[in-house]
Each structure stands twice: as structure tokens, then as C-alpha cells.
């Protein structure tokens, strides 16, 4: 896939170790199910799309014992489709979809994508998932994020947060909540990470805590745009608290708190 837009049938046959007629027969069944596409040029080639790739990732997660069953779709983001799943504990599987609808991540972490052929969305999604999982492993449990569980192709499996986005609830102590958020951003900063897409839509709150999600676009604090991205993150959060709770905080003060040390708070809400 990395080398061919349409993978030659003979190449697939060689990889599978099966006779060419059998491979062709099975691929035609998959084609009827809409999981692969066939094109006849000077050779016969196949392409897999996101639905087929989702199933491959899911099969791998099941085989490796991380997932027992998959549940409802819980979210469709600009750059992902998110499903509930189950093992001993409730999980979610975030299937990345970078490239198709948005170039946000691809642009920002451009160096990760430098060797990709044009239009290779599955690879873009796989690299983004790998990046998100790596960042989450680096942050957890020091920063309040869902526990990362497993990575398979373009799918990140993590703990399910039984909560809501903070814009969907009414916080009873918004000032404390803002403090907690700045505290978590500060902890991530100390670990060398800037979220780079932080907003009220990427913060979940459950009965006990807030959890920051959606890390594929995170950058290292030494990234050339890190300071600008950090300012943007903090400014999004301040604007939300000002708009909804009339809490005013100067951007520079908030940035100082994130870059220095701040106190512990507790966040509470009612829905
Ligand atoms: N660990 C989780 N627990 C519960 N729900 C989650 C979790 N992770 C993601 N979700 C749900 O899935 C949605 C999309 O997830 P996320 O924000 O990570 O993806 P995204 O595609 O980058 O979204 P967007 O581009 O819209 O910000 C979230 O808004 C949330 O509703
Ligand atoms: Mg999001």
C-alpha cells in the first residue's frame, strides 16, 4: 500500500502465500462487501479503504486480547470515528481519519509525513494514531487523560470516560475547574508536550475529574510553533470561561501559570 496506489493482485498473492485464483476469489467477495476496490489497468490492482482498514485494526485488537466486543458509535470528529468497546473495563476505539476531511494534523506535524506519497490517507491516519498513542503513553498517568490501552494500525484504544464535554454541563465551581485545566496543561508542559488543539470540545468531565482528550496534533515544547500553539490553547480555554461563566483572566497571567507552578484545585459540575 505504501508503494502502490493500487496494490497488484500478484503482489497480494505473493504476500498471502495462497494460489492466485483463491486470492482473486476472496478479494472479489471483499469487493462486493465494499471493503476493497478493484481497478484493471495494465495490471489488476486493489485498494483498501477506511472501512476495511478499521476491520483489520479491530481484528488485531481482538487477537491481541485488548478488545472483546465493539459497541455503539460515540463520536464522529473531524479526524476520527469513535466507538465504544469492551474488555474487562469499558473502552473506546478511536479510528483515525486524518487527511480525508482535514489537513490540520498533517500540516502541523508535517515532518512525520514527509515520506508519504500523495493521497495516502491510511498511512496518514496510521502515523497520527501512532503519534497520539505515543504522546498519551508519555503523559499518562501524570496528566489527567484517558488511560491509553493499545494501538493497532490507525486505531487508538483507550479508557472510556463516563462523562461529557465541559461545554455540555454547567460547572458549579468554574473558577476551580479553570485552575484544574491550567494545572493539567502545566503538567503536560513540564513533560515537554503542548496539546495544540485544546478547547472546551476536547475536555471531558466525569463525576471526579476532568480528562483532556484528542492528542494527535500535540507538539514538543521545542517545536518552532510550540509557544504560539500554547497561547492558542490557553486563549481558547479563557474565552470559553469568559463567555460562559464571566470569568476574566489575562492571557499572560494564565500563560505564566502554565509555564510555572500552580496550585491544586477540584472541579465539580451539575448537568
Ligand atoms: N476516552 C474517551 N471517552 C469517552 N468519549 C470519548 C473519548 N475519546 C473521544 N471521545 C468522544 O469522541 C469525540 C471525538 O474524539 P476526539 O476529540 O479525540 O476526536 P477528533 O476527531 O479529533 O475530534 P474533533 O476533530 O471533532 O475535535 C469526543 O468529542 C468525545 O465525544
Ligand atoms: Mg476532538
Architecture blueprint of SSEs:
Blueprint: E1 7-8, H1 9-16, H2 20-32, E2 36-40, E3 44-48, H3 50-63, E4 69-76, E5 80-86, E6 90-96, H4 104-108, H5 121-139, E7 148-152, E8 155-159, E9 164-165, E10 170-171, H6 174-190, E11 193-194, E12 203-205, E13 210-212, E14 219-220, H7 226-245, H8 251-259, E15 269-270
Antiparallel strand pairs: 1-3, 2-3, 4-5, 5-6, 6-8, 7-8, 9-12, 10-15, 11-14, 12-13
The structure holds adenosine-5'-triphosphate (ATP) and magnesium ion.
Magnesium ion is lined by residues 77, 201-202, 214.
Q: How many distinct folded domains?
A: 3
The CATH first-level class of the largest domain comes to Alpha Beta
Number of strands: 15
Radius of gyration: 21 Å
* CATH homologous superfamily placement of the largest domain: Phosphorylase Kinase, domain 1
Number of helices: 8
Global geometry:
elongated
- Helix share, percent: 25-40%
Structural class by sheet pairing and helices: alpha+beta
Low-confidence stretches: none
Helix/strand order: EHHEEHEEEHHEEEEHEEEEHHE
Strand order of the largest sheet: 4-5-6-8-7
CATH topology description of the largest domain: Phosphorylase Kinase, domain 1
Ligands, deduplicated: adenosine-5'-triphosphate, magnesium ion
Distance between the termini: 47 Å
* Percent of residues in beta strands: 15-25%
